[in-house]
Amino acid sequence: xxxxxxxxxxxYNALSLFEIQLCNTLSNILNNMIQFPQLWGERCxxxxxxxxxxxxxxxxxxxxxxxxxxxIYAELYFYxxxxxxxxxxxxxxxxxxxFDFGLEYLGEFEKESKRKIYSALLRLPVSILNKSMAKLNxxxxxxxxxxxxxxxxxxxxxxxxxxxKIKRVERLEAQLKNQETAYNFVGLYKGFVKLxxxxxxxxxxxxxILLGLATVIPLLIFAEVIYFALSGKNDTTVTHIIKLIxxxxxxxxxxxxxxxxxxxxxxxxxxxMQIELRKSLCRFIQKYGEYSKEINANSKEGDRNPLAxxxxxxxxxxxxxDDKTPSTFDGMEQLASMIKAVKGS
Length: 345
Hints:
This protein is mostly helical.
């Protein structure tokens, strides 16, 4: 740049107007490049390292030949067009002056420089467009790759979290099944407990009645024996029989009711035993549904389900006792039938 300024100062009178303006325009643009190197680097980002090295080589040549100056101008014209193309707003006066000077004095340049300026004007816009599109595609592709990679990482992280949550849900599901099974058996057990409480109350009431009858009947018989012993010495046999009939009838009736209450007492005891058995089985058997399926799946065809006995007991009716009553009261049913027959006649 100093070489150009010195050449203009020393050879000012020998230079034409075109040559003077060429040197001034070239000097202005070089000063601008020196002042704002970062800005020019951004505007001319599409230039290759080879092109930049070639321009540096030309600028470093210490020649004052006007053709060499025109060649520098022509080489810089490629940079000017690119800088004008990528200016965010209207290009600066320095850029405009440089660009317009090449168009206005194109015919004054020597053949090689003129060819380069023509090439810059005609071919460079297409090249800039192609390189810009390629850069956009590369940047877009790179951004897409980064986005895909980021998405894959997020999906992998979400997959891990999802697997953890699925495992947790499965554990909770297993726990809920266990709780449900336990709750069902607890509910069944509570039902038997409630039923057992009711039957225990019935048993106590029946026992009190039974004890009352067992006390009253011997007292009546004992009272009648004493009565006859004290006041019936002078009575005849017929009189004894007549006096005996009311008390004997009362004793027989009480004996009949005693048998009924005793049968009810034995029945309630049997029911309580069955309820206690069911309660014990409910405490013993857990996961009955799953265990039953497993047993049925493993058992051979034709074999009876090993849990059939459990099912028969648990889900059967609570039956009254079939135990026989004491032999003393075996004839009471015949006596009751005889009384009904007498009434019917």
